[in-house]
Structures are given as C-alpha cells and as structure tokens.
Amino acid sequence: MQVFKFGGASVKNAQAVKNVAEILKNHGSGRLIIVVSAMDKTTNALEVIIKSWQQRNEALFSETLEELAAKHYAIIDDLFGMKSEGIRSKIEGIIAEINGKFQKNFSDNFDYEYDQIVSLGEVISTKIITAYLQECGFDAVWSDARKLVRTDRTFRNGNVDWEATERLIRNYVNDHPNNIIVTQGFVGHTPEYFTTTLGREGSDYTAAIFAFCTDAEKVTIWKDVPGMLNADPKYFRNTVKLDQISFKEAIELAYYGASVIHPKTIKPLQNKSIPLYVKSFLNPGAEGTIIQENTENDNKIPSYIFKKNQLLISVMPTDFSFIAESSLQKIFRCLTEENVTINLMQNSAVSFSFLADAEKIQLEKLIAALSREFKVRYNENLELVTIRHYNEEIIKEITGGKQQLMSQTDRQTIRLVLK
Ligand code: ASP
Ligand code: MG
Question: Cβ(7) to ligand 1 under 6 A?
C-alpha cells in the first residue's frame, strides 16, 4: 500500500486535476489511497460562510457561496464537458445543503457548526476527483473519512482515537482490495458520527493516519515546491532542497515553525518507519525530499525558520519579589486561559519574557489579564529566526545590522530575537 496526498494547490483547477490523473498513471502503481484537500482556497471561503451565517450577514453569505459554487461548476464543466450532469447535480446538492443552513439558527457551539460545514470543501473536491478518475478509467472509490477517521469530541481540533480508526480503516481497505481509495484530508468523526476536523492544514496528518493504519510502504505529499527547502523562499534568497532528512529532524523543523508539513504528520510515520516523500506535482519525476529514519544527513545543510511580527512580552511581579515557581504558575494559567502559544521563553530573577505571534493574540485583553498581578511591558514588530546546524558565519550574516534582543542556543539550534 502507498498513500498519496494532494493539497489544495495541487487540485486548484481543472488543469491541476488532470495532472493528478497523470501522476497516478505514471507513479501510482500497486494499492493506493489518495487523500485530497479542498480545492484551492475553498476552506477559507467556507470559513467566511460560517462566520457570515453566525453574524446573520446574508449578503456576504450568499455572495461567497455563489462564488464558491461557480468555481467548482467551472471545473466540472472543463473536466466532464457534455457528461457533467451526474457529478454537477451531486455538488449542487451539497451547495443547497449549505445554502439551507442560513435559514436555521446558529447553535451556540461555533466549533461544532464550523466542522459540519467547513469539512464539505473536502467532500466536494473528492467527489469531483473520484468521478474524474473513474472517467479516466481508474477503479476509484469515493471513501468517506467521516466514517473512517474516529476522533474525540474536540471540534476543530479532533484527537484521533487510534484503535477505532485502525479498525475502521482496515475493514474498509480489506473490503476494497481492487480500488484506488479516494478520501478527504482534514476530516473525521465523533463516536456519534458528527463531523470533526483535525485543524487547519490537517490533510498531511490524514495521510499519515491512513498510512499508519494500513502499514503502508510509503507516503508521498505532492506539493508546488521541489521538496523540503532549507528556508522559506519568501524570506531567503538562496534556498536549497534537503534531499534526505530524518524523522527527528523533520519534527524539530516543524516544531520551530517550518510550514512545509503539518507538525502532527511525522510521529505516526516514525512509529512504523514509513518513509515520507515530499515531491513536486509540477515535476513528478524529480527526486524531492525523503524523510526517514537515518540521521546521517541531518547536519549537512543549515535550515532557517523565520517568524515575523512577533511580540515580546515581559512580566514582572509588582511587589519587587523574584520570579519563582508560584508566579510562573500564575502566569501560565493566565496564558492558557488566553489561548496564547509561546514561541520562545526566558526568565531572569525578576522577570519572565515570552514571544508570541502578534496576529494570534488579543493584546489588550492579555495585558489586562496579566496586569491584575504583574507589571507588563512589551516590544512589537520583532523577528524570530531559528537556525538549525548554525555556525558563526551564518549568525553574522543573519544578524547583520539588526539589534539582537534575546538568544537561545543548544548544540544544533540557535534562536534569535531581532529588531
Ligand atoms: N483544506 C484544509 C485547509 O485548508 C486542510 C488542508 O488543506 O490540509 O486547512
Ligand atoms: Mg491546504
């Protein structure tokens, strides 16, 4: 068994879907599961739809849904031409289902409502792609992740129930020995069969779940980049491809914020030593990156991870006392309540400082909460640079001309807060 994952960019229009069929023809030998995301920016559009329903903004709701529908109908027309009626009426049914929601009251459980609707982006894309693959002569079967991936009841961030999921997937795969299984990334279900999602960009993780549960030989993630690069080309001019890295290194890179692969993806694969290939759907014959057990090549090329727009917040006890366990406990309770994700932290005798993404924080609210017991200072518009396998020369190059507010090092990694 092998698992292919196609993300939103790889199925963003009819041309891209045709390319998926080409890739299957040339590279999809043996038993195959394909995990597919919603087409292009569909998930973002569905987020707008759910919010406009909640806020009873009918104009925005209708406009966004119409645009979304039109885009998918155009893809269907292009792919199926005269034979588009069957698949088109299926998608019209789903669009009508979303449309009908606006008449109903929004329940007070936003996350629940979100999952029931936002998951439909993947349902739509997989219906279209399955129909197209069948049209091309593949024995593709549309397979419902809402019946295969079991999670707990944490909507928008479902935690996988591995035992149940393995049983469900194994049974399903055994029942379909001659099919290409086409399923939705990002989507799961509760024990009561309500739909859940696994968190934004969660389709990579779905591929790992299917691979784990079927003891797959390998997973391939098809992307619009040649593989895993040693930095984001948006921020770094001379990027190079990492040909081979270890699971351990991939987990570290994902942890520090490299956004090529969803961070939860690696663990299940590492657990069963299933190699992960990251390859370009634009150049499917090229090597790409292999992520596997062997750590030999990990330190050959330094990797850079840039996080812009960082806030550095420092918290000090108001009574001139030291930062001790009891104050840390209070600070962390407050950060948990305010849903803050810490990118870096450090403390001295009298202050505790941490770095977080400015866009993910409600700054005034957070400061108000912390100020009940502490004095708070902050610094805006900073950059956090993480360098794996650094050397002095690289540090000089990266920090050149910038003020350095904080740094942390271990043998492999240096993290710098720059202004
Ligand atoms: N469609 C979902 C998202 O955009 C899941 C994914 O693409 O991985 O977040
Ligand atoms: Mg995506």
Answer: yes
Q: At the top level of CATH, which class does the domain 2-223 belong to? A: alpha beta
Angle between helices 42-54 and 110-118 (to 10 degrees): 140
Which residue puts its alpha carbon closest to atom 6 of ligand 1? 201
The dotted CATH code for 303-418 is 3.30.2130.10
Which pLDDT score, from 0 to 100, does residue 107 have? Answer: 87
From the CA of 156, how far away is ligand 1's center (Å)?
A: 12
Average pLDDT over every residue of 289-312: 95
- Please tell me if the CB atom of residue 8 comes closer than 6 angstroms to any atom of ligand 1: yes
**Closest ligand 1 atom to Cα of 199:** 9
User: Which among 301, 327, 306 is positioned nearest to 315, based on CA atoms?
Assistant: 327
Q: What are the two backbone dihedrals, phi and then psi, of residue 80, each rounded to the nearest 5 degrees?
A: -110, -15
The dihedral region occupied by 74, where left means phi > 0, alpha psi between -120 and 50, and beta the remainder, is: alpha
Which residue spans of the chain are classified as CATH 3.30.2130.10? 303-418
pLDDT tens profile 146-171: 999 999 999 999 999 999 999 999 99
Query: Residue 62 Cα, ligand 1 centroid: separation in angstroms?
Result: 22
